[in-house]
Amino acid sequence: MADAERIAIIGLGLIGGSLALALRRARPMLHISGVDLDPRAREQALKIAIDEGYSLEDAPLDDCDLVVLATPARELLALLPQVAARMRSGAVLTDVCGAKELVCAEGARQQRVVFVGGHPMAGNEYRGFSAASPVLFSRATVALCPPAGREDAAARKAATERVRALWLSAGAEKILEIAPDDHDRAVTFASHLPYLAAASVVDALTGCGAASELARELAAGGFRDTTRLAGDGTVGGAAALNRFVPAAARALAEQLRGLADAFENDPAAALARLAALADERRRMPMPAITATGPAPRLPSA
Amino acid sequence: MADAERIAIIGLGLIGGSLALALRRARPMLHISGVDLDPRAREQALKIAIDEGYSLEDAPLDDCDLVVLATPARELLALLPQVAARMRSGAVLTDVCGAKELVCAEGARQQRVVFVGGHPMAGNEYRGFSAASPVLFSRATVALCPPAGREDAAARKAATERVRALWLSAGAEKILEIAPDDHDRAVTFASHLPYLAAASVVDALTGCGAASELARELAAGGFRDTTRLAGDGTVGGAAALNRFVPAAARALAEQLRGLADAFENDPAAALARLAALADERRRMPMPAITATGPAPRLPSA
Predict the structure, then answer these.
(1) Among partner residues A200, A202, A218, which is closest to B187 by beta-carbon distance?
(2) What is the dihedral angle through the alpha carbons of B255, B256, B259, B264, rounded to the nearest 10 degrees?
């Protein structure tokens, strides 16, 4: 991607804001328009991350070689065709949504642009541009769903390469090309089940009556880490767009019930199963801890 | 607690080893005997944390003013009366087990010693003395179950104060005196449900067939943090000694199933519930991140 290119990032929250910050560092000559409905986010971003700030209505999307949709999941699906219709013919549109089947299907319907589905596997429980960090994607894996079913294979390939280069510039370590349904099935286990489990544990704690206050006092690092993801209010939106989630969540519930029964009926078997899972977890390669916690607060306007 | 006192720590793993290291720093004159069945752990500990190392058979427990049982949960319950029988009459016995009803009931049966139940709310997924850290308990909360039902109130109070002073020396920030059943009920929500949820998520990932490999590649910080606790093979032992766990785990399974149904039947309601839980989680005061990850490896013998 040449540095003279112009891109727009729609949504200057944690993900879009972090992408702008990372690209500003890695490619200072890249022209970045930031689009957000919150004027304060635009003001903050203008100081350190973007060249121009716009509301969506005013954004000159037809000037851009590439547009990144980085809004929450629900809005994203509705915005996609509106944004595509305002872009230059043949330009590249991409996104960051954690659900890919529905989004890529909508993207494939846009004849005007080449849509490449994207999903950076990074995030934290904080929100908004003030939580954005230039190292959020450092060493991250990014899933890409290249466009399928269009005639012009060369344009498809070029669009995918352009989005790949964008994420590598932003610090990503690995780009994984993947079909949308494979993505959604895998992310169900990698992201949505952990999220729903975390939310359910918070739900249990808040609903346990008299024990709740004491439980909060006794909550240590294990509770903090297991439930951290529950504080991310944006994962649910992607889970709601993923057709594999309900059945997987019901299977997870069955596993929990099975463990509960085993504790009563055959504790030795329950402990053996848990020890095997502990071994399994310890053997799993895990992403390094890079950019957790909120970024330092930016100066207010 | 005077520094001329002699204590023994039985079990030089993550918890017992960290306690020895913390006390060595805070109270250099305190005489610490370390007891472990692994000669290598004793050798490592002798270099930096303890004055003398023993196997359990050889340990001069009758020399000690205070003995800390820091073995895994299952062994601990069986060891407690054996250890008490070998201690000096009137000395203080305490433990670190994450289940308190059964352990404190066994402790109360020991007429020879004064038993004070203890449970430091700290830990990580690593094991053994080589994972121990002198700051593991830094700023931690420690639950204490003072002895009840004995005649000598002054001795009971003095024993509790002695154990309290031990943990404060080790870096604890808050000592919470609590009845064993209240402890077990609260810890079910603060510790055991997060643990079982984490283990179930690992179980789901390992059992999802073709999606498993891809899911592992896509696992990011959320998966890492939610499932970290599943790698702690010692929590299960305490969960197996806690009578509140099975019903709470079944209730958690019901909550998960309810969320799954809501995603299918009323996604807006599901998302509203998840957003409320995200807010709830963000409002919860959480322990600071102090000593996560393994301590630097100690020099080998």
Answers:
(1) A218
(2) -140
For the domain A183-283, what is the CATH superfamily, name and number? 6-phosphogluconate dehydrogenase C-terminal like domain (1.10.3660.10)
CATH number of B184-283: 1.10.3660.10
Min Cα separation A61/chain B (Å): 31
Which of the 8 DSSP states describes residue A244?
Answer: T
CB-based burial label for A13 (10 Å; 0-12, 13-18, 19+): buried
Helical spans, DSSP H, in A12-100: 14-26, 39-48, 73-86
Q: What is the mean pLDDT of residues B27-40?
A: 97
- What is the Cα Rg of chain B in Å? 21
Domain ranges of chain A: 6-179, 183-283
A238 has a pLDDT exceeding 80: yes
Tell me: the pLDDT tens digits for B192-202? 999 999 999 99
- Name the pairing type of β-strands B6-10 and A174-177: unpaired
pLDDT at B289: 63
For range B117-142, the mean pLDDT: 91
Query: Best mutation site among B225, B232, B250, B261 for testing chain A: the one with the most A CBs within 10 Å?
Result: B225
Residue A231 and residue B281: Cβ atoms within 8 Å? yes
Rounded distance between C-alpha atoms, residue A97 and residue A137, angstroms:
15
Whether A279 shows a pLDDT value over 70: the answer reads yes
Grouping H, G, I as helix, E, B as strand and the rest as coil, residue A127 is coil
Tell me the one-letter amino acid at A99: A
Q: How many CA atoms lie within 13 A of A172 on its CB side?
A: 26
Residues on chain A touching B236 (C-beta within 8 angstroms): 270-271, 274-275, 278
How far, in Å, CA of B65 to CA of A106, rounded? Answer: 73
pTM, rounded to two decimals = 0.86
Q: Which CATH number fits domain A6-179: 2.30.40.10, 3.40.50.880, 3.40.50.300, 3.40.50.720?
A: 3.40.50.720
Summarised one tens digit per residue, pLDDT across range A67-104 is 999 999 989 999 999 999 999 999 999 999 999 999 99
Fold that domain B6-182 belongs to in CATH: Rossmann fold (3.40.50)
Residue B244 identity (one-letter amino acid): F
Alpha helices for chain B (secondary structure H): 14-26, 39-48, 73-86, 101-108, 153-169, 180-187, 193-206, 211-218, 221-228, 235-240, 245-265, 267-283
**pLDDT band at residue A150, thresholds of 50, 70 and 90?**
low
The span from the CA of B243 to the CA of A250, in Å, is: 25
How many angstroms separate the CA of residue A45 from the nearest CA in chain B?
25
Q: How far is the alpha carbon of A183 from chain B, nearest alpha carbon, in Å?
A: 8
Rounded alpha-carbon distances, angstroms, from residue A35 to A57, A112, B6: 9, 21, 67
Say how many C-beta atoms besides its own lie within 10 A of residue A287's C-beta.
17
Task: Put residue B128 in one of left, alpha, beta given phi > 0 → left and psi -120 to 50 → alpha.
Answer: left
Q: How many helices (H) and strands (E) does chain A have?
A: 12, 8
